[in-house]
Amino acid sequence: SQFQDDCSRGACYPPSDDLLLGRAQQLQASSTCGLTGSEVFCTPYHQRTMKCCPCDSRNPNSQLAHTVQEVLSTSRPDRWWQSRKGENPVTLQLDLNNLFQLDNLMLMFKGPRPSALVIERTLDDGRTWQPALYMATDCEQAFPGVPTRTPLALDQIYCYTLPPTGTNPYQDHTIEFSPLRQYAYVQAPNSQKIEVSGLTGLRVRLTELGDVPRLPGRALSRFYALKEMRVIGSCMCHGHANRCLPEEYNNPLSCDCQHNTAGVNCERCADLYNDLPWRPAEEGNPHTCKRK
């Protein structure tokens, strides 16, 4: 959804920001190289030669460390997260502990891009997870039975075919995901589409290591590595707020509710304003709660 600060005419939405900022400790990786000791990784170098470098994450501040917190946009230059060699599948998980709206997810991979991955969301703080998008270089082989056509209904998901990596799979590759863009061809109001962007947690499940070229001598290492991750979104207010209130005194980030609504996510009518059933705001109709 685009930022809309005028709540008087209909749905309004808070401005988006990177939900990872300030939540580095809520991001976890199931595999990180060098946590128990130094590991050596070999990657291509000039003209069919290779270079081998260590990873040692026992001290997160070391130049040789590649912990998952290095994927934040505020991280130092030339820093990245890297998994252990050959480990598969690997999961990156962000726990938000409250309902948010995802506008866009950006993943900038370093080294061989994954051949298959699944983006998943949870609405119950990680008790259950639902796939939001499958991605693969070969969807039918990686995820048999998952449709490859663009969804035409809000309850449909599909597999997006990743473009070829080109002659050098070790170049940086960026993958983006937008829930609303995915359902651009669905005939439904934006207020309904926004519901599919809601989440209390986000998980990226890397399920197939990328292919690496064959070089004479020592084998090249296969691993997952992510240079940057951005989770662009805002507090979920169902179209009833144009700003998020700051987190204070251990209270979760909440909406500055308009239209006589209330709750952390403006998910109900305010007290004494229950003359009509609560509804999400729509373009041109705020569905303002009315006093009895």
From TrEMBL:
Stored Pfam families: EGF_laminin, Laminin_N
The entry's keywords: Disulfide bond, Laminin EGF-like domain
Alphabetical list of InterPro entries matching this protein: Laminin/Netrin_ECM, Laminin_N, LE_dom
UniProt xrefs under CDD domains: EGF_Lam
Domain of life (superkingdom): Eukaryota
Segments forming domain Laminin N-terminal: 8-234
Keyword Membrane tagged: no
One of the GO biological process terms: cell migration
Protein's name in the database: Laminin N-terminal domain-containing protein
Organism: Amphiprion percula
